[in-house]
Write a structure and sequence with these properties.
This protein is mostly beta strands and about 80 residues long. It has one helix at about 25-30; strands spanning about 10-15, 45-55, 60-70, 70-80. The protein contains one helix and four strands, in the order E-H-E-E-E.
Length: about 80
């Protein structure tokens, strides 16, 4: 994060789809199956930011591409933050 110029900041995340746990083994198996995440064919969920901006006191909006199950969509996520931390 570049606190002096948010345009230079970025966020990237990759999650192993097989690591998702809901504390219900039957639900976990179903989520990991071809019905949902299809972890055998699509082993990761990925996010890569395309922009970050301040939208309020200690609140950011992070826009970016989220890829799940081979489909990429542009999403926006708001996050509370302390820019001086």
């Amino acid at each position: 994060m570049d606190k002096s110029n948010l345009a230079n900041s970025r966020v990237e995340a990759s999650i192993e789809a097989a690591s998702i746990e809901t504390r219900d083994s039957q639900r976990d198996a179903h989520l990991k199956s071809a019905d949902f995440f299809d972890v055998e064919k699509f082993p990761t969920l990925n996010f890569k930011s395309t922009g970050i901006r301040i939208v309020g006191d200690e609140e950011l909006s992070v826009e970016g591409d989220l890829t799940i199950h081979g489909v990429t969509l542009l999403i926006s996520v708001r996050a509370n933050t302390h820019l001086d931390s």
